[in-house]
Amino acid sequence: MGADLQEVLVSEEAIHARLGELAREIWRDYQGKDLLLVGVLKGAVLVMADLMRALPGSAPMDWMAISSYGSGTKSSGVVRILKDLDTDITAKDVLIVEDIVDSGLTLSWIMANLASRRAASVQVCALLRKPDAAKVEVPVRYVGFEIPNEFVVGYGLDYGEHYRNLRCVATLAPHVYR
Ligand code: IMP
Residue 79: CB within 6 Å of ligand 1? Predict the structure, then answer.
């Protein structure tokens, strides 16, 4: 896998340290609230696993699957629910756990959708954010790392379903795209 990579943008150690910090912050902020972690499949699987294990106490999770990139590298902005939540989120304090906020199109759609189900609150925790790419302003309360506007893989993020199992976040070498 190493030969396919160009540059490591965020190391495994940095990811774990930052998720630990975010978990403690989230735990403090949600004291006395009815926290539900909502992951967006499939990219958020690894973020969810490590973030929730870093929480000082217990919190339930649920998952949504929506249509996203396929094998390309551009967001379509077209969102379709492939798998909905199992949980009734009425009056719950929903924290959406995301891998990356790129254009923000997907996330703004999910936030509006969940808010319309009468959740008490809907906030976002994203491991990565590409600030230069934002097409819509999405309030992301917890951000792991700001990264440049480049296509990245690893730690749940894929290119044509590959590289999700990479332990760091990296850019791909140009030969991979040919
Ligand atoms: P957005 O709608 O442009 O914010 O992107 C939504 C989804 O696209 C993310 O949740 C990721 O699954 C995927 N995505 C965005 N940027 C990247 C990237 O650099 N690498 C891999 N997937 C990405």
Answer: no
- Could you state, in chain order, the average pLDDT of each consecutive group of 10 residues for the chain (178 residues)? 93 98 98 97 96 98 81 63 96 97 89 94 97 82 96 96 97 90
* Alpha carbon of 100 to ligand 1 centroid (Å): 6
From residue 35, give the alpha-carbon distance in Å to each of 112, 137, 144, 146: 18, 24, 19, 25
In this prediction the pTM is 0.92
Separation of alpha carbons 158 and 68, rounded Å: 11
Query: In Å, what is the CA distance from 107 to each residue of 140, 145, 165?
Result: 9, 17, 23
Ligand 1 centroid to 117 CA: how many Å? 25
